[in-house]
């Protein structure tokens, strides 16, 4: 588990579950770090101005965007936040319950998570598919 500060929250009272696939790169990263004290931030800045301090949200956004670009995904709609949406959608598509997805996303209101269900339902039950079925593979 990884305890996190959510947006607008003061306490570290929320967590995400780290799967083996997610935790392996973190351990690899920590093995390369010089400082790994208990009170050190998990992800530390390497910049001159804030060396060793927690990464800012701006830095996380930049790192995520650079990783997307390096992987060949050059689209302004692809951001760190859009990857969060992707994770929630993939959890639901993989069989997670609405409540499980809500907990993973740390949504305070189930209606926020329901937006993802409606989007997935729109795609899987699209009226456009009925047209293709009617016309066949014309």
Question: What do you see in this structure?
Answer:
There is one protein chain. This protein has a domain at 76-138. Helix content is 53%, strand content 4%. It contains six helices and two strands, in the order E-E-H-H-H-H-H-H. The chain has a two-stranded antiparallel sheet with strand order 1-2.
Please outline what is shown here:
The protein has helices spanning 20-32, 57-70, 80-93, 98-105, 110-124, 127-135, and strands at 2-4, 14-16.
Order of helices and strands: EEHHHHHH
Alpha carbon gap, first and last residue: 51 Å
Order of strands across the main sheet: 1-2
- Note poorly predicted spans: none
Radius of gyration: 19 Å
Strand tally: 2
User: What is the number of helical segments per DSSP (H or I, 4+ residues)?
Assistant: 6
Helix content: 40-55%
Output mean pLDDT.
87
- Inertia-based shape: elongated
Strand pairing plus helix content: what structural class?
mainly alpha
How much of the sequence is in beta strands? under 5%
Biggest beta sheet attributes: 2 strands, antiparallel
């Amino acid at each position: 588990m990884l305890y996190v500060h959510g947006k607008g929250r003061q306490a570290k009272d929320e967590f995400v579950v780290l799967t083996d696939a997610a935790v392996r790169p973190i351990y690899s990263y920590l093995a390369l770090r010089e400082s790994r004290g208990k009170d050190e931030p998990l992800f530390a800045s390497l910049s001159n101005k804030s060396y060793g301090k927690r990464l800012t949200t701006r830095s996380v956004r930049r790192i995520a965007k650079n990783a997307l670009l390096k992987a060949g995904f050059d689209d302004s709609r692809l951001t760190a936040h859009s990857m969060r949406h992707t994770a929630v959608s993939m959890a639901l598509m993989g069989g997670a319950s609405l409540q499980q997805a809500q907990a993973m996303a740390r949504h305070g209101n189930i209606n926020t998570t329901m937006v993802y269900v409606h989007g997935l339902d729109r795609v899987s039950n699209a009226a456009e598919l009925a047209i293709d079925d009617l016309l066949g593979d014309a």
